[in-house]
Amino acid sequence: MTTVSDEDLYRRTRTLLEPGEIELVGLVVHTDLAGAEDLEMHELTVALNDVIAEHAGKGESYIYAGNDDTSFASNQFQGLTLADDAFVWECQQLLREGTFDLVFYYEADVDQAAIVGAVEDLDHVDRAATVRTDD
Fold first, then answer.
1. Which of 13, 23, 33, 118 could join 108 in a cystine, given CB atoms 3.0 to 4.6 angstroms apart?
2. Distance in angstroms between the alpha carbons of the first and the last residue of the chain
3. Architecture category of domain 23-131 in CATH
4. Per-residue pLDDT reduced to its tens digit, 52-99
């Protein structure tokens, strides 16, 4: 079920995908995690990193929090490859209406249906929705 609030989130996510050097696809992950569930949010972000990196064929990756970078916002993270710090994904964790929604974007040359299916099988995920610029 998409709410008006979700439509605004999806619209804002589409703007993050605007044409650049690479074609991107977005994924909005709606969770059942409340604002105080920081440890569970961290564990879910690690699991999402694994799913996206595996399906993107990027190899092992790690999560960069950007704490030492003033261009990063609070609750903004990147997945980078271990081999050469190459981009895998970027996300923002947003507390909306009492629970977290995570907005990911990554290169569009992936099996998006497989990613969505794997993400929806994770604990604490209510649903996941693909966002594309042509939606």
1. 23
2. 16
3. 2-Layer Sandwich (3.30)
4. 999 999 999 999 987 666 665 567 899 999 999 999 999 988 888 899
